[in-house]
Write a structure and sequence with these properties.
The protein is an alpha+beta fold. A five-stranded mixed β-sheet has the order 4-3-2-1-5, sandwiched between helices.
Length: about 100
């Protein structure tokens, strides 16, 4: 699944903290081999996926598909928006990352 498929499938959500306007993207990805659903946390220039760690940080690629999909989706107005308050933002990040790491 590529970045445009993530956009077309509507699997990208922008979470905005108010009043600070901090934001992140939650990108849902389905594994074809494991039939599992995984959520990736994407910030403007960071993604928690292995492609980001292996290819982007070693300058083999500019972006992973999750960051690229999030940027395209946001610029086209195709991502869903969820607004939360500032104190809940860090809790939301912790819950999202804990959910992913406990699956492994």
């Amino acid at each position: 699944m590529g970045a445009l498929e993530l956009v077309d499938n509507g699997t990208i959500m922008c979470v905005i903290a108010q009043p600070s306007n901090r934001h992140l993207f939650q990108v849902q990805n389905f594994s074809r081999t494991r039939k599992a659903r995984t959520f990736y946390l994407c910030l403007d220039n960071f993604c928690c996926c292995s492609t980001f760690a292996v290819q982007v940080l070693t300058k083999q690629s500019l972006f992973c598909k999750h960051i690229l999909g999030a940027r395209i989706s946001h610029n086209l107005g195709k991502c869903s928006i969820r607004t939360i308050n500032d104190p809940s933002f860090s809790v939301y990040i912790e819950e999202l990352t804990t959910k992913n790491y406990n699956k492994k």
